[in-house]
Specification:
The structure holds two protein chains of two kinds. By secondary structure, chain A is an all-alpha fold. Helix content of chain A is about 70%, strand content about 0%. Chain A has one domain. The longest helix of chain A has about 30 residues, at about 230-260. Chain B folds into two domains: about 1-105 and about 170-245, 3-Layer(aba) Sandwich (Rossmann fold), CATH 3.40.50; about 250-310. In chain B, helix 7 (about 185-205) links the parallel strand 6 and strand 7 (about 205-210). Chain B starts with a strand and ends with a helix.
């Protein structure tokens, strides 16, 4: 445990070094959130009944989605772990007496948590905004707690999926291709661009069964009350199912790859 | 105790001709070539010994180090280091070793060095007292001081390397693998690092395996050397033995005033300019004192210097002899 706590702490410290990154990404989030809400407002004015969420629900979804952009982004843009493979310091990483999967898992989580903490002022600002832009609290405390639990699970599901991506990187020289493909596919399928309930019914069935639906889709809809009652329990169970599956797959894939890995050069 | 037996490793390397046509063709069809990086590598190193592992570029030095660190799995062969097979029991094994890869970094780039050290302390589960003692000792020996509070990115190469070496020793490793630890260091840092490695070996009985291209590292540190070339161990012996075997010729540089002295048996002229001769001596035929006496008797001697074959020359001669 001490090892993983130390890794978490280190990555957290490292992420806190970049103040301008934090500030500018927060500003981007606010502006982006502002624009999407205005766009949704225009659609809702035409026919509010055509949407599976009420307008205030959509507003909350957008703000959390924007504040926690890096919490949920399958491809975390700073390339922290990728860089260990690119620079060859993976050689050192492998010569450490602790499991590489869990060390990277912790490291990836820490980076996301740190960057999200730095963006929290954006969320606070969303509560203070006037009129239709204002973010609202969930109806009760239990729902808030379930939301937090589901957020943590969503982080773990996202990271465990990312781990699969890192493992594939052992077998390629450049990661740009993988990153581009994965970014495009997962942002869309996880509800990062538009909420999954907004998808046409014909493909919703498939999309909602994929691991990407166990990421931001669940906690954001718990928060805004789009899923309630027994469905909340089902949603959290769905996250746990994908989390366990992805971790098992990731551990197996990493074990296989490490037997074949070649740290190049020097 | 380190024991390697018949270790083989082959890599598959993509190759293609230069030019646009070949680049396009390679998108669809890659041609690979098998490179035998290591062939039948065997050696034994007892506890507490310092060994220099030398060979020209691409000989397989780093590959061997990576196998001994458990990072690379060989195709076949046995490797037993203190009862562990590195690539099979990696996690348990690596806590007993320290590694420095001169070409890479284990320090976090944007945070102060001390934070990286604390992370290593926690990963190796070094207890607080031992960590503090080691850190104090390393700080003094490697002159770390203020460097510890500086982010790694602001350090010069030599400063960073001293921190890298310290980082690899915080957990008291039994065996230390140094892959080009003095690369890019200035004279002062090199000497500091060498003294330090010597001290570690003398006081803690650390087994040290060192790869380098700097023969002075080898001279200063190791008695035994292993020569590898084209993936094979070519030679295993002590530096002085090798020196005897390769050449015990001495070079004599004489500065004189007046007429050039005549040479006697056992001397050969290597170079001459006005007032200065460079001679090669065969010590079995002519001792150094006789040679100097002979020349002093023929002319007015201003200055004289005697030198043996340098390690660099010897290694170059060895590479030549083995065609590597």
């Amino acid at each position: 445990m001490r090892t993983y706590f130390a890794v978490f702490r280190m990555r957290f410290i490292a992420a806190f070094q970049y103040r301008i990154v934090a500030f500018s990404s927060m500003t981007t989030s606010l502006v982006w959130g502002f624009m999407s809400i205005l766009a949704y407002a225009a659609f809702y004015r035409v026919n509010p009944d055509a949407f599976p969420m009420t307008f205030p629900q959509t507003v909350s979804y957008v703000w959390i989605n924007q504040t926690f952009l890096l919490w949920f982004a399958v491809v975390f843009t700073d390339g922290d772990i990728e860089s260990t493979l690119e620079s060859g310091s993976i050689a050192y990483e492998l010569a450490r007496p602790a499991d590489l999967y869990w060390r990277w898992f912790t490291r990836a989580c820490a980076g996301r948590v740190a960057m999200s903490v730095l963006r929290l002022p954006a969320l606070a600002a969303a509560f203070l905004l006037p009129g239709i832009l204002k973010m609202t609290l969930p109806p009760d405390l239990i729902r808030l707690l379930l939301f937090v639990l589901s957020m943590v699970l969503a982080l773990f599901v996202t990271v465990s999926f990312t781990m699969l991506m890192y493992v594939t990187m052992f077998h390629t020289i450049s990661f740009r291709g993988i990153r581009l493909t994965v970014t495009a596919v997962t942002t869309f399928l996880s509800g990062g661009l538009i909420p999954l309930p907004f998808f046409p019914a014909s493909i919703r069935g498939i999309v909602e069964a994929l691991p990407f639906a166990a990421m931001q889709n669940i906690p954001l809809r718990i928060y805004n009350g789009n899923i309630t009652g027994i469905d909340v329990i089902y949603g959290i169970g769905f996250q746990v199912f994908w989390l366990v599956t992805l971790i098992i797959l990731g551990k197996l894939a990493m074990g296989y790859s490490l037997r074949k890995v070649v740290a190049q050069g020097g | 105790m380190i024991k390697l037996q018949n270790i083989n490793k082959t890599f598959r390397v993509a190759k293609r001709q230069s030019g646009f046509g070949h680049a396009v063709k390679a998108l669809f069809l890659r041609e690979y070539e098998l490179i035998h990086a290591l062939s039948d590598i065997s050696f034994t190193i007892p506890d507490g010994e310092m060994v220099g592992y030398i060979g020209p570029n691409g000989a397989g030095k780093s590959t061997t180090i990576k196998i001994m660190c458990g990072i690379l799995t060989p195709d076949n062969g046995l490797c037993d280091i203190d009862g562990y097979t590195p690539w099979k029991e990696r996690t348990a094994y690596v806590s007993t070793i320290g590694v420095v890869f001169g070409q890479r970094s284990q320090l976090w780039w944007d945070v102060p060095v001390i934070d990286s050290f604390e992370l290593i302390r926690d990963i190796y589960k070094v207890d607080e007292k031992l960590y503090k003692d080691n850190l104090d000792e390393l700080s003094v020996l490697l002159d770390l001081g203020e460097l510890l509070k500086t982010p790694a990115r602001s350090l010069s190469l030599g400063q960073r390397m001293r921190c890298e070496i310290a980082a690899s020793l915080l957990h008291n490793p039994k065996t230390l693998f140094l892959d080009e630890p003095t690369i890019g260091l200035d004279a002062v840092s090199k000497i500091a690092v060498r003294q330090f490695i010597k001290k570690m070996n003398a006081e803690h009985g650390t087994t040290v395996i060192l790869t380098t291209h700097d023969m002075q590292d080898i001279e200063a540190l190791t008695e035994r050397i292993l020569l590898i070339g084209k993936g094979r161990i070519l030679l295993d012996g002590s530096l002085s033995e090798l020196r005897k075997r390769f050449s015990d010729h001495k070079t004599l540089v004489v500065e004189y005033n007046g007429a050039a002295p005549e040479l006697c048996e056992g001397m050969t002229l290597v170079g001459a300019r006005e007032g200065c001769l460079t001679l090669s001596l065969e010590p079995s035929l002519l001792s150094i004192s006789d040679a100097i006496a002979h020349i002093a008797g023929k002319t007015e001697l201003l200055d004289v210097s005697v030198s043996g074959v340098t390690s660099e020359e010897m290694v170059a001669a060895m590479y030549k002899e083995y065609h590597i």
